Amino acid sequence: MKHGVSPDTFPPRSHEAKRVSVVDAAASVFCREGYAGANIDLIAAEAGVSRQTVYNHHGDKEKLFVAVVRDLTERCNAGIFATFATFPDQPTNLEADLVAFAVRMNRNCICNRDGRFLRKLIQAEGERYPELFAEWREQGPGRTWSALAARFARLAFAGHLSIGDPDVAARQFLALVNAELQITFMLGGVPTEEEVLRSATNGVRTFLGAFGRKKSPAGKQAALVHA
Amino acid sequence: MKHGVSPDTFPPRSHEAKRVSVVDAAASVFCREGYAGANIDLIAAEAGVSRQTVYNHHGDKEKLFVAVVRDLTERCNAGIFATFATFPDQPTNLEADLVAFAVRMNRNCICNRDGRFLRKLIQAEGERYPELFAEWREQGPGRTWSALAARFARLAFAGHLSIGDPDVAARQFLALVNAELQITFMLGGVPTEEEVLRSATNGVRTFLGAFGRKKSPAGKQAALVHA
DNA sequence: ACAAATTTAGACAGGCTTGTCCAATTCGTC
DNA sequence: GACGAATTGGACAAGCCTGTCTAAATTTGT
User: Fold this and answer.
1) CA angle A78, A80, A81 (to 5 degrees)
2) Beta carbon of A39 within 7 Å of strand C?
3) Residues of A with CB below 8 A from B178's CB?
4) DSSP per-residue letters across chain B
5) Which residues of A, range 189-208, sit inside 8 Å of B by Cβ?
6) Which among A19, A222, B10, B170 would be 20 to 30 A from B194, CA to CA?
7) Which residues of A touch B207 (CB under 8 A)?
8) What distance in Å separates the CA atoms of residue B99 and residue A70, rounded to the nearest whole number?
9) Looking at residue A17, what is its pLDDT?
10) Would you say residue A2 has pLDDT above 50?
11) What is the pLDDT of residue A1?
């Protein structure tokens, strides 16, 4: 409690705490209202600072926006790679392990505040800031997908999967695992824990149906648990 | 050529032609600039009419926006169901037929002007107009997915596929077929014909790997053609 | 406790946008 | 060719937003 960086309570916050408070509020407002619709006064109010402080810290609206995107990108990438560290490289139960991994991925990187905000900003303003989002693309999906592909290649090498192209498999894994959440994402909603689990379960099953080593000679897929 | 409804050339256009011209231009500008950033003067200029004409036809900015979304929704749904009519109910070569269907779907419904615009408007402004997009959701994805699920159920019944839950299969089919186009979509870009084909080919292969009837007892998947 | 740095509230100019009004012009139709 | 409807261009008020400036209050470091 040295610096008193408690949530948003009354006691005054430090210089740096205000900076992040402003960036956080700005992320929220930019997402809700769009870049053009975002109002600096509203951001300041939501951050609990005066308008002048916003300008002192970030110069102008555009610089603030760039700071927001960079901040979100950085945190999201950190989250993604942290989650990758939990990939089941030596699975005991491949299906269960992959489902758990997919759920973690969704919960910690895609459905959380940062993930939703960053996605929306990219979709809404990506075309207006080509170089900014090119940067995101290289550091985010670029690295992310290769890293995931490498994990799958390893699983295949170890005999757990039968994969043609690991890059394709990685992209399809992510697509499958989120297949049932698309509409919720589109409208900016947050899926429930149960929806995430169901989508991941169904997705991993299909993934393993296509890429898994057939071990059980019986019927390959019982009725899906989660309708 | 009765009414001279040629593209955007000099000759004057009819009353109705101007209405659609305004809606089209508005769709373009709303997508590019966002609702708040869209400027009526710019829309008028892009439509080749005066600002007053925009107001005469549509009342105010918000009504114009609603008209745009309804228009796009209607046209997209029409395109989707027209494309569904070409679903391979009696496939001769299941893989090739599904790939061709997926490519048609992408080209005519998802990657075309209307599809891209509608998607972006939903993502950017969906939260601001809950009832408008709820309507889209019911008439669009709601019907779309059941219709596609029904087609897959039929294929399964006819012995071409081995499916647990047709609704899940339908969603996963769409997810797989677009798996490699996600980032392009996110940034508002238009994938090339080749990218669409590659994504569809890889997606259908995986789909059949999971849901297809195993006929060739040999290795189930050669190296993917399109890397 | 004191000095420096930061924050605040408010006023302010400048610019942009929406939506209205109107007179002059053009269009479609008979 | 003439009439009514639609369109145009421009002026206009009202409101909102950004970004700057100031003087007073507050916080921080020492």
Assistant:
1) 70
2) no
3) 175
4) -TT---SS-SS---HHHHHHHHHHHHHHHHHHHHHHH--HHHHHHHHTS-HHHHHHHHSSHHHHHHHHHHHHHHHHHHHHHHHHTT--SS-SSHHHHHHHHHHHHIIIIISSHHHHHHHHHHHHHGGG-HHHHHHHHIIIIIHHHHHHHHHHHHHHHTTSB--S-HHHHHHHHHHHHTGGGHHHHHTT----HHHHHHHHHHHHHHHHHHHB-----S-S-PPPS--
5) 202-203, 206-207
6) B170
7) 206, 210
8) 39
9) 85
10) no
11) 35
A7-11, A158-162, B70-74, B84-88: lowest mean pLDDT where? Answer: A7-11
Would you say the C-beta of B57 is within 7 Å of strand C?
A: no
Tokens describing residue A44:
């300041």
CB contact under 8 A, A37 and B37: yes
Å from the A129 CA to the D23 C1':
39
- Closest by Cα among A172, A113, A143, A133 to B186: A133
CA distance B117 to A63: 28
Q: Calculate how close chain A gets to B166, using CA atoms only, in Å.
A: 10
Mean pLDDT of B156-162: 97
* Tens digit of each residue's pLDDT (9 = 90 or more) over B44-92: 999 999 999 999 999 999 999 999 999 999 999 999 999 999 999 999 9
